Amino acid sequence: MNVLVILKMVPDVVEELEVAENGAALDVEAARMMLSESDDHALEEALLLKERLGGKVTVVALDAPDVDEALYTALAKGADRVVKIEGLDQPLTTSLAAAAVCEVLRTQPDLLPADLILTGAQAIDDLDGLMAPLVAHHLRLPYLGVITGVAADEAAKFATVVKEYSGGVRGEFEVPLPAVLGVQSAERPPRYVPVAKIRAVMKTGRIETAAAPVMADGGLALTEVLALNKPEEAGGAEILSGAPEEAAGKLCGVLAERGVL
Amino acid sequence: MSGNILVFAEHFRGALTEATFEALATGRELAGKLGRSLEAALLGSGCRDLAQQLGVAAKVHYVEHPALGDVTPDLYAEALSQLVRICTPRAVLVPLSNLTMGVGTLLAARLRAPGVNFCTAMDIQDGEIRVKAVLYGGKLEATVVPRGEPLVAGLWPGSRNPEEGKSTTPPSLIEDFRPQLPEKPQIRLKRYIEPEAGDVDIREQPVLVAVGRGIQSEENIALAEELAAALGGAVCGSRPVIDQGWLPLSRQVGKSGATVKPKMYLAVGISGAPEHLEGMRNAPLIVAVNTDPQAPIFRVAHYGIVGDALDVLPALTEAVRKRRQETHA
Question: Which of A249, B79, B196, B230 is the most exposed place for a label (fewest CB within 10 A)?
């Protein structure tokens, strides 16, 4: 079973996010970038499939700040090959990113076919579309999203996948392969890999590079961001200040007033 | 180009979703401002009756095909794109839910039309549709304009009151549309997996202490359990805590989990990503504890404490116990 995983870097939202000078984009230089959370789960699911069924895991990512670290980490976790697509200017819309990735997948002789293409179900910056269905569209493959489990037969003809709805209800689907799945969460939390192992891989492992394609449409986006702002305060919380004990005391007063206590 | 607004009405196990009614409410406003009419697209097999509940729309397109019995994004997007080519709306509003995840993206891609996700509000300015969309887990908000038509807008559920999209009268016109599709979908739903009954039903609890990433480790859940016990409630969690296996799936609040409305919802170490807010924003009293004063959770909370979960939880438990003793004394 050969699985291809598409990874994307996104800003770490635990940090303060700055808006670029034009007022309409994120200041990527000022942001700390990290692997998109659901992409990390997609990688984990791919590694679980490899452990169960054998085969190879190939990882593809667009160049971005700190992407090398994410790719070396993928190698340290058990990915067989990692490929970085270079030469595209940030920031990219998800539509353009998907088009670029698919063009590389089509033109690089040894990346496709894959039995399964996995990526995150959704990223926090997927403003103009989701990566998984866009990739499925470009490669003309079946797609299903919000996946929390994948099992496949040895012959890799079909996969049985679990999709989440709401309220804890899930659906079990039969998907013909090859297919593109948007992974919400892997069957177990993404594995931890010690920093020492990542450092060792940095010395011995290799990140392959591929040149970004020239986009047929010149990379024209169909949407325009006029402004990017901190959301307007709608009401907002009354902050109970003070040391934890003091704030806790104030909150108890509120709870008593509201009949909760 | 009809220039109308078309809402994709989604339904699950025989019922229209609340997100559909939210989309209808937004669609009606938008159509009103444009002086156009609101239409709805109901896709499925043997579900024509549901169109009766879409009376906010002037016209409902009932798109019937045996392959549309269960939602598979490929066929739903294909059927919708065939309809859109005929009814030529200015914008298609699609609820951004787990159920139909990907349908909007595929529709925009097939039509080579602009797509905008995570929409929380839509307006008309200088004749242009302007969309507000939340990005980066709710930390920033984008104002977006489409360059082309139709706009395919993915609406974030929980952004407005679904009651505004409901009507007691049926739509004046229901039109049948038969799309050209393969007889069977490639992707097949085999069965539903029902949620396992948890030890407690978090939807029935008067007080919920919800923990997120800020709780840091499984051992620290005990701090939340103690506070929940003192308050007479239960502990629940946001997605990262469930994914780590620190709490069972039955305790998840948000898009994939339960929607809850306790008397008090205490969110501890939860940043307040839109997926989480969707499941708890209607609680009458929301209190948030977070180290980051900019965390989006503070925008929906009524009261907030800026501090570390591990410091605030024991302090709160202590204060609640003390207060209870005082009242009983």
Answer: B196
Q: Do B303 and A240 touch (CB under 8 A)?
A: yes
Residues of A in contact with B319 (CB under 8 A): 245, 248-249, 251-252
Disruptive mutation site among B140, B201, B321 for chain A (greatest number of A CBs within 10 Å): B140
Q: Which residues of B touch A11 (CB under 8 A)?
A: 136
Q: How confident is the model at residue A88, as a pLDDT?
A: 83
Q: Are residues B292 and B225 in the same domain?
A: yes
What do you get for the CA distance between the two ends of chain A, in Å?
Answer: 57
Cβ A6 vs Cβ A61: under 8 Å: yes
Interface of B with A in 190-229 (CB under 8 A): 190-196, 206-207
For residue A178, say if its preceding peptide bond is cis, omega within 30 degrees of 0.
yes
Domain span at residue B158 reads 5-177
**Cβ <8 Å between A19 and B140:** yes
Quick check: B319 contacting A, CB < 8 Å? yes
Q: Does A188 touch chain B (CB under 8 A)?
A: yes
B189-213 pLDDT, tens digit per residue, is 999 999 888 888 999 999 999 999 9
Where residue B288 sits, what CATH number does that domain have?
A: 3.40.50.1220
**Residue pair B238/B278 in contact by the 8 Å Cβ criterion:** no
- Nearest alpha carbon to residue A190 among A98, A79, A53, A101: A79
**A126: which chain B residues are within 8 Å (Cβ-Cβ)?**
117-118
- Tell me, yes or no, whether B307 lies in a domain: yes
| DSSP symbol at B171 | P
CB B56 within 8 A of CB B38: yes
Token readout for B250 is 């039955």
Q: What is the pTM of this model?
A: 0.94
CA distance A199 to chain B (A): 25
Name the β-bridge partners of B15: B12
Over residues B159-168, the pLDDT tens digits come to 899 999 999 9
In a domain, B31, yes or no: yes
DSSP H or E run through A133: helix A131-139
Query: Taking CB atoms and an 8 Å cutoff, what residues of chain B touch A249?
Result: 319
Q: Report the candidate in A182, A229, A35, A256 with the shortest Cα–Cα distance to residue B285.
A: A256
For the record, the structure tokens of B114 come out as 């602009």
ipTM of the complex: 0.95
Which tokens in the block code for residue A18?
């700055």
pLDDT per residue over B251-279, tens digit each?
999 998 999 999 999 999 999 999 999 99
